[in-house]
Amino acid sequence: MRTAIAIASICLIFSSCKKDNEVQVSPTSQFTARVGGSYWAASNIQASVYNGSIVLIGESVDGTVITLSLNGDTVGVYSLDATTSSVGTYSLGSGKGFSTAGGPDAKGEITIESINKTDNVINGSFGFDAVRSIDDSLVSITDGRFVNIVYSNLPLGVENNKLSVEVNGGKWSPLDIAGFVAFKTLFISAYDADGTRSLSFELPYDIAPGKYNLNYFTKYKAYYITSDERTHYAVKGNLEITSHNIVNNEIEALFDIYMEEHEGTGNTRFTNGEFKITYE
Questions:
Q1: In terms of pLDDT, which residue wins out, 8 or 180?
Q2: Is residue 193 predicted with pLDDT exceeding 70?
Q3: Distance CA 24, CA 45 (A)
Q4: Count of domains observed in the chain
Q5: 3-state SS string over 115-155?
Q6: Poorest-confidence range of 16-25, 173-182, 198-207?
Q7: pTM for the complete prediction?
Q8: Which residue, 106, 133, 150, sits at the end of a domain?
Q9: For residue 35, is it within any domain?
């Protein structure tokens, strides 16, 4: 079970598995910083300027991810702290991350220096102190630069993929949604912009349209990692596959799930859920 979770987490966290709008790094594109004083550089980059917001996601070869999410789409300086709607994060994967929304010691800023709307190229700089809310530990990101990054005018990860659900009654529409098949299993995962909350499914790769009972100890599994790194497993739930085209790798479904914390007393209810996904 843990092996399957690790495979899904490693391959699906942000840009580890190639998506249609992934920006391949060219010799002139750079997304770099110092993390705790050590040099860091992105090998995979995604960027979007869409609907009044800017999102840049860079992943290093070691799987760590820096995400810059701005409430605005113009040149200027964007302040970061626990009260601002713009956020900077540093993620280690599998829900473990540091965020400028994580606590009172978090602070920083992102500067958008230029946006070339003809060639869809963005440049800027950043630096911030991000906090891990579960234990108040802090990481400093300094000397950040993004140079000649080509951006999309679509939201990242969701041109063809959609997932929406109510989590304990509150609407959740994750930013990054992806799927892939390995070991005759279809893995589907959805992540927040900073990667600190995720919902995942593990299903038979050839699952047919129909209604299924979700339980993590069957072959129809679901699990949820919260922003404070607590893992919840599906105890019971309903999954209705409304269509599945194995030739084109397209699947649609409706779902409702009740999950319980693996080591603890917490629980989470997912209602009115649906997804439409083209997977790898």
A1: 180
A2: no
A3: 6
A4: 2
A5: EECCCCEEEEEEEEEEEECCCCEEEEEEEEEEEEEECECCC
A6: 16-25
A7: 0.56
A8: 150
A9: yes
Is the pLDDT at 76 greater than 60? The verdict is: yes
Residues 136 and 208 in one domain: no
- Where on the phi/psi map is residue 34: left (φ > 0), alpha (ψ -120 to 50), or beta? beta
- 104 and 216 share one domain: no
What is the band of 93 on the pLDDT scale with cuts at 50, 70, 90? low
Phi then psi for residue 4, to 5 deg, are: -65, -40
**pLDDT at position 155:** 63
Residue 37 tokens read as 């004083």
Domain identity same for 34 and 144: yes
The verdict on 117 and 193 lying in the same domain is no
Determine what percent of the chain is predicted with pLDDT higher than 90.
44
Residue 180 lies in a domain: yes
Q: Which residues, at least 6 apart from 218, have a Cβ–Cβ distance to it below 8 Å?
A: none
Among the candidates 150, 173, 191, a domain finishes at 150
C-alpha–C-alpha distance, residues 41 and 166, integer Å: 36
